[in-house]
Task: inverse folding
């Protein structure tokens, strides 16, 4: 049985700044990152009446793949809705899409998909896009305890936890359980969008993480050469492979922030996994660079 407990913390030096990295990308070869934390509740508990997971989102979602692993571990059926699959991807499955199919995902393409139109049966478990669910607090509470334990007796100075956000679920629940400040940046939509996502799970804005905006507007999923360059620099400098979709925006935001410049602050960066998605992202970037040369 998969057991996602106590990922290690690495100390790196990037751009002349010491940063601690919580390596949730190393939790398990198949079930890792923030999605493993979010879905740990369903892995650890019994659901005798459930035999099917239903979810929805993009055709290369990290959550899509992680749920396929969960369904396989629980011996459940898995139905996933998406509004589009490019013909090239259908003909040449790769990345999260391929590995989710390998785990017997039943994917349904519906360009007019509306969550409100789904008729969920008693034997079915609906999990919102990206794992934006209250049950995510179970695994994220364990993560918060690991972080607290790491800093115990270390006499670390002003500690800040930083992570990029999609739905913001991970950042929200970590702030709920931690006394240290949790700082995040929106990778999907803007700060207003992220605040709305927080409010779905926590109405008290005083309990929300701190949001800092990226140095420029990044459209989710769009390729930016400076992000690929930064990703490669991180990999060569730190020997850590980060996610190519969220982490470059996260690091661009972090290194341009005041907290990065203030070396009296102890910085902890949460590596949330998502490395399987790099398979398709790297291919897209290589194609972009080949066209521009």
Result:
């Amino acid at each position: 049985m998969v057991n996602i407990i106590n990922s290690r913390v690495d100390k790196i030096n990037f751009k002349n700044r010491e940063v601690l990295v919580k390596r949730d990308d190393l939790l398990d070869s198949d079930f890792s990152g923030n999605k493993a934390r979010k879905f740990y509740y369903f892995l650890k508990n019994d659901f005798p009446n459930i035999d099917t997971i239903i979810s929805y989102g993009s055709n290369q979602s990290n959550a899509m793949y992680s749920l396929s692993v969960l369904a396989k571990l629980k011996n459940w059926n898995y139905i996933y809705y998406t509004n589009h699959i490019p013909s090239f991807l259908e003909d040449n499955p790769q990345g999260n899409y391929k590995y989710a199919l390998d785990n017997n995902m039943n994917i349904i393409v519906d360009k007019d998909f509306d969550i409100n139109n789904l008729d969920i049966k008693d034997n079915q478990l609906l999990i919102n896009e990206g794992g934006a669910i209250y049950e995510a607090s179970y695994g994220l509470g364990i993560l918060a305890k690991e972080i607290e334990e790491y800093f115990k007796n270390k006499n670390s100075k002003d500690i800040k936890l930083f992570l990029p956000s999609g739905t913001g679920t991970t950042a929200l629940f970590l702030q709920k359980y931690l006394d240290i400040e949790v700082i995040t940046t929106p990778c999907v939509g803007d700060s207003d969008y992220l605040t709305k996502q927080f409010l779905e799970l926590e109405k008290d804005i005083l309990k929300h993480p701190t949001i800092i905006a990226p140095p420029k507007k990044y459209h989710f999923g769009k390729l930016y050469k400076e992000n690929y360059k930064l990703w490669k620099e991180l990999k060569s400098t730190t020997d850590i492979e980060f996610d190519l979709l969220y982490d470059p925006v996260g690091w661009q935001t972090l290194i341009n922030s005041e907290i990065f410049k203030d070396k009296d602050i102890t910085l902890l960066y949460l590596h949330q996994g998502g490395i399987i998605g790099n398979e398709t992202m790297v291919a897209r970037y290589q194609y972009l660079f080949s066209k521009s040369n």
